[in-house]
Amino acid sequence: MGLFTTSKKKGAWTLLLTALILLLVVKWGSSDSLGLGVVERWVRNSYAPLQKGVASVQQGLGQFGTRVLGLQDLKQLLQTEQALNQQLSLENMRLRESQAEVERLRGLLDYRNAQIGQFDLEAARIIGHAPNNWYRTMTVDKGADYGLTLNMPVITPDGLVGKLINVNRSTAQVLLITDREMAVGAIIQPTRENRGIVEGVGDGRLRMINIPYYSQAQDGDLAVTSGISQTYPPGITIGTIRDIQKEANGLVLSASVEPAVNLDRLEEVLIIKSFQVAEAPANQGV
Amino acid sequence: MRALIIVLLPFLALFLQTTFFRSFSIQGAVPDLLLILVIFYSVFNGSTKGAVYGVACGIWEDLYQGRIIGVNAICKGITAFILGRMQGEVFQENILVGVIGVLGGTIINVALLFMISFLAIPGFSLNRAILADVVYHGVYNVIISAPIYIWYLRSSRGGVLREGQSI
Prior knowledge:
The structure holds two protein chains of two kinds. Among the domains of chain A are: about 70-175 and about 265-275, Thrombin, subunit H; about 185-265, CATH 2.40.10.350. Chain A has helices spanning about 10-30, 40-70, 70-105, and strands at about 120-130, 135-140, 155, 160-165, 170-175, 185-190, 195-200, 205-210, 220-225, 235-245, 250-260, 270-275. In chain A, strand 4 and strand 5 (about 170-175) form a beta hairpin. In chain A, the strands form two sheets. Chain A has a six-stranded antiparallel barrel with strand order 1-2-5-4-3-12. Chain A has a six-stranded antiparallel β-barrel with strand order 6-7-8-11-10-9. Helix content of chain A is about 30%, strand content about 30%. The longest helix of chain A is centred in the first third of the chain and has 34 residues, at about 70-105. The model of chain B has no long low-confidence stretch (mean pLDDT about 85). At the A-B interface, helix 1, helix 2 and strand 1 of A face helix 1, helix 3 and helix 6 of B.
């Protein structure tokens, strides 16, 4: 006789046992300082080697295909150029923010150059995705072994991707900016209004709320991280402002934000392990 | 052997959902292989066993996601319980049973997820993009359900999932 027999009595006991197991799992699933419970950690660990294997196979297949086509040299050149391009894009992003800051401070007598934030970056490869579209998450192939901890910002040279919400020994889970639980303090770059919040809508889009009613923001302006929350360094591009609308109360505006990063086509990301925020100039009055 | 396969299938399904099928997503949607598996198990084994299997698979998915534990367990458990009523009432050899079962199961599962989201997530609202996502997800589930059902049916009749090799 097996565990699953058809008597109603056994069925009721089985359902009761299932409910009990569910309760225990919920209790053991309580998260620790790295955002994971014992059971969750075990489940995630069981997938990590396989997911890393698949990612390696995919990469290997790509390299094999390239060799077969005799394009290995071209591929190397392309990789070098891409790396350079990424580096320049990052620099450009910081410079753009810096430029805006310089323009803002130019009139001040005690102006001094602010130091641009320096990032301690860790590159990681994406090895897994959320099993459904209710949650917008990704799994990367590096974890606590590489010094990663909760809430570290995740970026690409194009802009903000999200932050770490669970960190395992060898993997970590990234909560994407498009998840409905995500909210990031933002500045509209040309107007410098810094009370905005960009939040995920849950369907792959972003929305910026809390824009002052007097804002001169326009379609096409960039929304960047404000740095107010201290989770994200200031000046990281979030996306492009689209379709600004007045809220029903008339006091604030909201806008759609087109993410700067194509989150469906990501393969590698950069995790900011630490960053230095530029010192605010003394007596600047802004 | 049957028990081992039944335990390993959800592991494999979640693995494929999070890796392989992401490369073949339709407008960002991937099939819910775990749900399809739970539905087929219910259709062949009835409501009670189906509900238990659904809850177990749901917990597994919840633990992998590391978010609100219990949401998928409840949704998949209830979906399996409802779909399990089909056992003995339908001609299982007909492939349409699998396809229609998956269509119905997907609708029930999504409806339950919406209900829980409305109750648990402040400010949750439906919009065209979410609904479009659900439609793509449902269509993908239905398309992929046919070959999986054929395999499941054959395995249940004379293969690794044949009754008699009880857990």
